[in-house]
Structure formats: structure tokens, C-alpha cells
Amino acid sequence: MQEKAMQKNVHKEQVDLLIDDEDAMVKLGTSLAEATEGEAIIYLQGDLGAGKTTLCRGILRHFGHQGAVKSPTYTLVEPYNVNGQLVYHFDLYRLADPEELEFIGGRDYFSEAGVCLIEWPCRGAGALPDADLEVRLDYNLPGRKATIVAGTTRGVTMLARMQEGKCQ
Question: With b meaning 16 or more CB within 10 Å and e meaning fewer, what string describes 140-161?
């Protein structure tokens, strides 16, 4: 990681980072994408405007997406196929009931090999698979604090890749 996303605290299954600005958030997304090796469930937590969609933009840029990235608040999911890499960007903010995920084919998305980015996962509690990584973004003015927690064995491996400098 470059200086703009400096490491503050590292544990085996958790990493805390200070993110200075939008460019650093995009770079963190790039690093996360590289660590996934193309397959992961990532929960994105944080208040409105905390940088969840900016982080998604960094992940998608790593795979080669050049278009706009916006939060799929009304459609619930935005699928991307970028150079053969599947990425599903979910925004569950407007989900009234977790069972609504069944109506949009949630199981199909989660059963395919790809990267699933899930904003507001608490709205889908009980209907979502376990997260490999949970990324919590909090305001830490003038920037943000990112707390990345591994929730699965694959998530621990992903964090290890990031900590060993094997990702940008």
C-alpha cells in the first residue's frame, strides 16, 4: 500500500487502515481485488457517503472496468462481466425483507464464482452467505478509517496477501 492508505494496526484476522482521500480509497479497492484472486464475498459497512461505492470502483478498476460505478440502490444488484471476471455489486439499503434476495436470484449470484460486493449487508441478514471479508468504513476526518476483518479461511488468506505486500 502506498502512503495515502497507511497501516495503523494489524492483527492476524483484522487490518485497520487510515485512508486520506478518494484516490487512496480506490487504491485500497485495487488491493482488495487483487487479494481476492477473482472470488470472494465482501461485506461493505459504513454510513452514507463513507466511501463504499468508491471502494467498489477501485475493485472494478482492478479487473479492467472503465465505466461509471454507481451504487445500485434501486435495482439492488449491478452485475459486471469485466474481461471474464464476474463482479456483483449489491446495495441492500432499500431491501424491505431479506427474502427479497430470493426474488432477484440471490442464490444464483452467490453460487457463481466471482466477487460479490454487498453494501448494507445487515438488511439481508439470514439470506446472505458468510463474508470472506467485512470492510467497515468510518469517518476519520479529513479521511476515513477502514477496518477489514476476515470472516472465513479464504478471508484470512486474503488478508495475509495484503499484509505480505503481494497486493499493490
Answer: eeebbbbbbbbbeebbeebbeb
